Input
Amino acid sequence: MKLYTFAPAANALRVDMFLREKKLKLQTISVNVREDELFKEPYNSMNPFNCIPFLELENGTIITETISICRYLDEQSNSSKLFGNDAEERAIIDMWNRRIELDGFLPLLHSVRNKTSFFKGKVVPGTRTSITQSPEIVERGIEMFDILLNRIEPHLSKNKFLLGDKFSIADITSHFMFNLSNMLKIDFGQTYKNVYRWKSDLEKRPSNPLLDND
Ligand SMILES: N[C@@H](CCC(=O)N[C@@H](CS)C(=O)NCC(=O)O)C(=O)O
Output
């Protein structure tokens, strides 16, 4: 089994943190996204969506999508499950992960891609197009993030993590949503104190791959 990845990319880091939590080691192949290697063979055929991360199984099957990769590895391993232990837990974790991914992580990812000059001509992940960067999309992402934080603040006042005392894949997604919010210099510490406490806890977790750069 081989993981195709590129260490600094947000979704690569999500898988990295998941692997560290699970204490799993995989053979990794670094594909230099910045040098457009994903558009060259063999990578273009392996993932025609031209994105990392993707996982190649022993039988040649390719699994793309961060969450699908992590879910597969979680099911294959015996160590404590980050996607839940029974039907109810799996559903609740999936619910939180979708809320965070759809209402926070992705809107902020698009804010970053529409703001930073590095992403000019690359606003949609895995494409090279003439779609222009849009300040409205930057603002919309930040507004959506604020709506999400406002909704989850009461939950985090009563819970250590999204699933009570249990750390899950939804917290990993959240950690990288917050990393995007740092890139956009969004300061919410005074407004959403419980969310901020949780963000700080996630940053201190030994599995946080961003600690390697400190
Ligand atoms: N929906 C995919 C998105 C993966 C993705 O956006 N990967 C980015 C790095 S974070 C990428 O490979 N971008 C290549 C590019 O835009 O050229 C997932 O969740 O894994």
In short: The CA atoms of residues 111 and 139 lie 7 Å apart.
